[in-house]
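Preliminary data (for renewal application), adenine complex.
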Amino acid sequence: MHIDIITVVPELLDSPFGHSIMKRAQEKGLLTVACHNLRKWAINKHMQVDDYQFGGGAGMVMMPEPLANAIDELQTDRKYDQIIYMTPDGPRFNQQRANQLSMMENLLIICGHYKGIDERIRQQYVTMEISIGDYVLSGGELAAAVVVDAVGRLIPGVLNDETSALFDSFQDNLLAPPVYTRPADFRGSKVPEILTQGDPKKVEEWRYEQSLQRTRERRPDLLDE
Ligand code: ADE
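Predicted structure:
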């Protein structure tokens, strides 16, 4: 999978993809991520990419020309499966959407800043909008990093144990069960016996029960879906 990201603060994306699973995905050649500074397509020598909003009101708006020129140029190299705009007023991101995006070849992600991007870019170019939650970030970069991470780890071959994503929280609309490692007795608190008795079938049943119980207690809304 290849992901292009358009941003006015590329520095914010220097680190998130350089470690751990995202790093491994790129080393294995399963994922490439390219960040593009929107100022490369600025409309003047002042590197302008934003302007006051028509109708008045506080806050700048990202201008349509730099974005359109950036997208047009990137589109000469690739046909994107989705052109995604990160925005708090989009549909909320979830595991189902991550699964769906992990099957795509080419994604373009636009990070908004200030008051957001000119509405005409949303109408003419954007094919999918994503919010990562009901709160407002200073820009779309951290949200884009969240999406790339959640999607990237689902690309087949990225995780070492191919099945492990299947047991993540949310994969079956269930939260993951509790996990334990050594020591078996930590300051008097013991690991549930069933996990140390070596009966895989019983362990599986226990985990499923724990998942159900956790989901009922913490996220009953998931069971309604
Ligand atoms: N940009 C600012 N806030 C955001 C959010 N919650 N989700 C996605 N993009 C954003």
